[in-house]
């Protein structure tokens, strides 16, 4: 075992770790706990007058306009329910452009002037709040001296009780807008985009003869990957504490090359953590379904089942905050950075999405014979058109400094946005392009050669792990989203570009039918046109191959490798026209997204550059110099004794120390030169100059980790952080 005091102390703390006893009392494991802390429709049905309940239910289930007259009744019932569960405070919860959750807590207590107080919660307080908006990112929408912002109750995302060791809080999901009405959050444009998509989807459904058409929504089932690292290690790593990823770390003797961690037995301590998080999430109505070990050592995944996209986005934020809080109680830190460790898989948040409603079901369900399912083919064709025309917007929606390290590495898809359809759908659309589809490849039977085992069903098509947008049976999986990102950002883009594609398809079909073309013939004609014009986005091969990257560029697909390359997509005339047409962003709001994304990229890299210099100068260099001195002292002692010493170790360390000092000098010059640039030019400079300078420092430091005496190396190593539980 290592003799370094810092690392040895951390390991001993891990060995002494015990699960928090209060979490394992055996209660609360029955199905009844699901949603018990949610002010859900069943709860409302019991507590609200019938007329009020029907009004709220119509807003939640059908998207009808909220009747403000019911607010006082709902607020009173909500307050009584919350106080019965121990809540003393309420909070409007909103989702600013930080990508994190924000909340402002107030007490139900109202003084009455005679030294006593009453507990009340009025409808006007439920409907609207007023947090300070000046200190949140706004991209220039508001000057910093103008502070007023509003939160507004989103009745479609239910209120819930957030339990704490010392009390509970009633949490009310809300939108967040400026005093002048611009969106300062992710929820507002997500709801707008959903409305736009719904309007156009209804037009398509009407063309297919549907009469009773419910409000259409997008559905989302996001898979969340994450790392668990012991708190004792994280507290000894300034880079993990401040940047969420390791800026230094030599490759360990063993990584993920054996594939022995993937779907392996979950360590007991990690299972204890998972049980506690799932109980907490179940109480909050979060449908956490699947858990397993991921590919990289120390990496895991949780996957909830599908929900309406607005609710799924809120629940995703709850998952991350719940994981963070409960991980600490188990002596872990939950890491959501897209690439916390170099050389092993990073973490994504695969966004499985589909569209549908209560009456017509899932529009992306192909059925057994997709070639006969014209409605499905129209919606699938809309996805193809949307991705081909607006791949740049999908790319910028998931652009961040963290995701730049992940995309195209190991399991993550490349930054070229393409679609994988699979053999079955690929064949159907190829038939359509040639004049009409008459058959669909069918599922098969798979015998594994063991008499005692049943025959397995073989799907009509395989899956593709390298595709950013892969069809997986009854949905598309957007695999490029980063682990630390809100799913609302890509969902906003998906909804909006689907609105445009469905608008186009509906308009084209309507025009052909009006001109006398039979409906089915019109559909086939438009499907063939979509494949001809937008089939370049469909690719079923290996997304990692050099040949594909070259072919993609030849096809006219955008190759936006980094955030800096992607950010200008927010500023194109096409993007401005698209978001404006469908009422998702006005020009000022879209410009604000660009400015905020640019600012967050620069801040993230600046923090990392400062940390690189600090850690290298104050931790790594002193350790290396001490070892260099030890070796020099040994050589001097041998020489004094008349023995010829071997200088190779000293020379190697000295060369690496010199390289580290030179790297630091270059990094300092690079950071100083950043101030000579502004806007996107500054981001380009950071990408081209600052990040490579940081890597030079790391290269020398990681080389030193491999030669400096273990007892002198203070930073917990990859080997320790990834494997010790």
From TrEMBL:
**Which Pfam families does the entry link to?**
Gln-synt_C (PF00120), Gln-synt_C-ter (PF18318), GSIII_N (PF12437)
Domain of life of the organism encoding this protein? Bacteria
The GS catalytic domain extends over 197-620
SUPFAM superfamilies under this entry? Answer: Glutamine synthetase/guanido kinase
Q: Where is the GS beta-grasp domain?
A: 88-181
Q: Which family does it belong to?
A: Belongs to the glutamine synthetase family.
Q: This chain belongs to which protein, by name?
A: Glutamine synthetase
Species this chain originates from: Nocardioides phosphati
Q: Which gene encodes it?
A: glnN
């Amino acid at each position: 075992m290592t003799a370094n005091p810092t690392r040895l102390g951390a390991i001993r703390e891990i060995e002494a770790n015990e699960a928090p006893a209060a979490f394992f009392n055996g209660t609360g494991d029955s199905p009844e706990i699901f949603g018990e802390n949610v002010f859900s429709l069943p709860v409302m049905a019991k507590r609200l007058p019938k007329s009020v309940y029907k009004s709220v239910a119509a807003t939640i289930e059908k998207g009808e306009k909220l009747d403000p007259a019911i607010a006082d009744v709902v607020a009173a019932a909500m307050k009584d329910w919350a106080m019965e569960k121990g809540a003393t405070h309420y909070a409007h919860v909103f989702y600013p452009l930080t990508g994190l959750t924000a909340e402002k807590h107030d007490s139900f207590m109202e003084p009455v002037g005679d030294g006593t107080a009453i507990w009340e919660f009025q409808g006007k307080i439920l409907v609207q709040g007023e947090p300070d908006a000046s200190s949140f990112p706004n991209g220039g929408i508001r000057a910093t001296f103008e502070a007023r912002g509003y939160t507004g109750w989103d009745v479609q995302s239910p209120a819930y009780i957030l339990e704490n060791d010392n009390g509970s809080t009633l949490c009310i999901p809300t939108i967040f807008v400026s005093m002048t009405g611009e969106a300062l959050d992710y929820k507002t444009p997500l709801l707008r985009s959903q409305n736009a998509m719904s309007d156009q989807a209804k037009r398509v459904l009407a063309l297919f003869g549907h009469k009773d058409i419910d409000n259409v929504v997008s559905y989302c089932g996001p898979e969340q990957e994450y790392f668990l690292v012991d708190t004792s290690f994280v507290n000894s790593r300034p880079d993990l504490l401040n940047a969420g990823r390791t800026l230094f770390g030599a490759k360990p003797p063993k990584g993920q090359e054996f594939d022995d961690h993937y779907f392996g037995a979950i360590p007991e301590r990690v299972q204890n953590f998972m049980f506690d998080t799932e109980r907490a999430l179940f109480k909050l109505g979060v449908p956490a379904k699947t858990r397993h070990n991921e590919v990289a050592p120390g990496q895991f995944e949780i996957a909830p089942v599908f929900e309406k996209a607005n609710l799924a986005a809120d629940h995703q934020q709850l998952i991350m905050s719940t994981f963070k809080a409960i991980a600490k109680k188990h002596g872990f830190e939950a890491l959501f950075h897209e690439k916390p460790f170099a050389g092993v898989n990073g973490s994504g948040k695969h966004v499985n999405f589909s569209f549908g409603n209560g009456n017509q079901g899932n529009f992306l369900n192909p059925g057994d014979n997709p070639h006969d399912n014209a409605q499905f083919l129209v919606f699938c064709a809309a996805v193809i058109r949307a991705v081909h025309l607006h791949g740049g917007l999908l790319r910028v929606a998931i652009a961040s400094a963290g995701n730049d390290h992940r995309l195209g590495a190991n399991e993550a898809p490349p930054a070229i946005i393409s679609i994988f359809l699979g053999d079955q759908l690929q064949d159907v659309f190829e038939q359509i392009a040639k004049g009409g589809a008459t058959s669909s490849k069918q599922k098969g039977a798979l015998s594994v050669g063991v008499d005692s085992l049943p025959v397995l069903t073989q799907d009509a098509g395989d899956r593709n792990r390298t595709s950013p947008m892969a069809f997986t049976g009854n949905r598309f999986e957007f695999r490029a989203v980063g682990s630390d990102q809100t799913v609302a950002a890509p969902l906003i883009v998906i909804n909006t570009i689907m609105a445009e594609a469905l608008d186009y398809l509906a308009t084209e079909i309507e025009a052909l039918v009006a001109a006398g073309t039979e409906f089915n013939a019109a559909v086939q004609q438009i499907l063939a046109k979509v494949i001809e014009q937008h089939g370049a986005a469909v690719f079923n091969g290996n997304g990692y191959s050099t040949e594909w990257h070259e072919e993609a560029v030849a096809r006219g697909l955008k190759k936006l490798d980094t955030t800096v390359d992607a950010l200008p997509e927010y500023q194109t005339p096409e993007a401005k026209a698209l978001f404006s047409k469908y009422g998702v962003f006005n020009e000022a709001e879209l410009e604000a997204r660009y400015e905020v994304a640019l600012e967050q990229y620069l801040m993230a890299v600046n923090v990392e550059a400062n940390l690189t210099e600090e850690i290298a100068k104050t931790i790594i260099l002193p350790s290396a110099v001490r070892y260099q001195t030890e070796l020099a002292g040994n050589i001097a002692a041998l020489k004094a004794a008349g023995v010829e010493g071997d200088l190779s170790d000293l020379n190697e360390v000295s060369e690496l120390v010199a390289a580290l000092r030179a790297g630091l000098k270059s990094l300092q010059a690079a950071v100083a030169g950043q101030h000579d640039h502004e806007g996107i030019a500054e981001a380009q400079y950071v990408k081209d100059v600052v990040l490579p300078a940081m890597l030079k420092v790391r290269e020398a430091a990681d080389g030193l980790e491999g030669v400096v005496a273990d007892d002198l190396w203070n930073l917990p190593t990859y080997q320790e952080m990834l494997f010790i539980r």
